[in-house]
Amino acid sequence: MATEFTAFARTLQGTGASRRLRHAAKVPGIVYGGEAKPEMIELDHNALWHALKKEEFHSSILSMKVDKATSQVLLRDVQYHPFKQQILHIDFQRVEAGKKIHMKVPVHFVNQDVSPAVKLSAAIVNHVLTDVEISCLPKDLPRFIEVDMKDLKAGESIHAKDITLPAGVTLVFHGRNKDAVFATASMVKEEAAPAEGAPAAAEVAASKQKAPAAPPAAPNKDKQGVKDGKK
Questions:
Q1: What does each C-alpha distance from 212 to 65, 199, 200, 215, 219 come to in angstroms?
Q2: Among 123, 104, 135, 101, which Cα is nearest to 183's?
Q3: Which of 131, 64, 66 minimizes the C-alpha distance to 95?
Q4: Sign for the pseudo-dihedral over CA of 165, 169, 172, 178
Q5: Dihedral (C-alpha) 86, 38, 70, 137: value to the nearest 10 degrees?
């Protein structure tokens, strides 16, 4: 079921009108795409702020209600204030059922704890990609891409070719390596222990720093007296 939200038609445009909306706890926005003209909208700031904290609001088809009309849209852009907790503007794109869409969706890693890399080798697992762009029809859009790590071994990596994608979904890399790495498992390097009976270099250096400097040698009185007699 698509995530639903409510928007309201906006008639006033311009910097001044947008500023007044923000002072009234509203967010100016726009909906574009499809055969219809771009539509100016406004949304309740607090409701939108909480909606944007949900993962599915960013990566799934949304059902937007404006007055009595409902349309399917995708979130395309959000502008935030540089330091205030405030949304300045938001963009949505209409969805056409028969047209493929490009969308970034999160990557979910599963079964990491039971993988040989972690369970048997105590390897360090690094998630290289946390989201990925995909192409598909709107009806095939997944909320996330799942990466199963149950067979990952220490020293190995999971590549794009190892991922099982949902039907109708392809990965998009825009010129990047099409066999991109999603995750790696590397062994922890153990520091070599010092040889038995041999002090560690750090201990030797520390002992030199702590040792007091040798006092200057006392003058030889006999030689000093001979020199004085000659004079």
A1: 82, 20, 21, 9, 21
A2: 123
A3: 64
A4: positive
A5: -100
Q: What is the dihedral of CA 14, 79, 144, 71, to 10 degrees?
A: -10
What is the arithmetic mean of pLDDT over 126-132? 95
- State the Cα–Cα distance between residues 169 and 165, nearest whole angstrom: 6
Q: pLDDT at residue 1 above 90?
A: no
d(CA 151, CA 148): 8
Query: Which amino acid, 23?
Result: H
Residue 7 zone, left/alpha/beta (φ > 0; ψ -120 to 50; rest): beta
Q: Which residue has the tokens 């007091």?
A: 212
Strand partners, 77: 91
CA atoms of 156 and 125, how far apart (whole Å): 10
Q: What is the pTM of this model?
A: 0.74
* Secondary structure (3-state) at 231: coil
Residue 35 pLDDT: 84
Torsion of CA 45, 83, 59, 92, to 10 degrees: 50
Q: Which amino acid appears at position 94 of this protein? A: R
